[in-house]
Design goal:
76% of the residues lie in helices and 0% in strands. The chain has 22 helices and no strands. The longest helix has 16 residues. Pfam families: TPR_16, TPR_19. InterPro entries: TPR-like_helical_dom_sf, TPR_rpt.
Length: 377
Amino acid sequence: MERMDVRVTQLRGFLATDPTNINLACDLADALCAQAEYAQAEAVLRGLPDGETAPGPAFRLARIDLIHGRHAQAEAGYRGLVEHGHDNLAIRHDLAFAQLCQRHVDDAAATVEAALARFEPAPALFVLKGRIELMRERYDEAVDALDRALQLDPDDEAAQGVRALALFDASRFEEAAVAARDCLLRYPEQHEALLVAGTMSLWQSDLDSAQALFERGLQRHPNSGRALSGYGQLQMLRNDLPAARDTLHHAVVAMPDHIGTWHALAWTQLLQNDRDAAETSYRKAYELDRNFGDTHGGLALIDALRGDYDAAEQGIKRALRLDPQAVTARYAKTLVLEARGENAAADALMGELMPGSPLPVHEFAQRLKATLGIQPR
């Protein structure tokens, strides 16, 4: 770091004597970005007479926009470069990444395919193609793209981690665990591998390991929706409900189209006896997918908790028709059965809730009953 400070000082001195030298300004901006001094780097670049139009400064300004999450501005910057005839693999890659961050998946895919057709194959492009296929929920295609990246460079850190996540999302859990472990042995801070390892530790109720893994991921990526989702569920399991609710709210802001995170937020709200907020969360999930069984089950659970057992039964039927294993619907059914005096059937159904669920629904159910003042029999 000390050597980098010396270099920054030297470059500032050189630029002061030649303030319109684009190459010097770009070198100084690069040195400042290496220290995460992005605002200073931006000021240097914008201080040039042609700072927003010359290709070197314009590329760096677009990348600073990308780093700061100003994805539409970044896309506009990269498009401007291409339109003025400044085109290379790095520009196309970052343009596609900016499009993907805005969830313009088809545009991002088209940009990547154009880059693959025009330039030499590069691991970074195949990693980005893998990310695009993950967002499309085309998991086999994602794994294929990441395998291609690793054929080009077996040591590519991002390819290893994103491949672990693709395997995980494809429900190939044993392969995902091995891939995440192997990646973290070489690259202990790789984000996607941390997500996979953290989630699997959470599912195995190894809360200490899960906490360490999610915290490592969030240290470098504080707005990672999936890391926030896992960490919020961990806090919920530790019964730190105010913190869990805050974390999961942050998660749904960062990742508004992830149904499972809306469900986790709803559980946290229910455990705080806030049924209205929980209903809002389930309805957000419903807006994303009207055919998701657990969402219908969650809405049925709200009806059951409010004592509207007829409406709850209708919701339970819809949920179980869509997903016979929907845990929220089955829990709602236990409340309806209890309310109608069918206690033995309710107990039997409650006993079935534990197997196959990554989170301890039975425990949540008992805590929810205590929160709502429903006495155990």
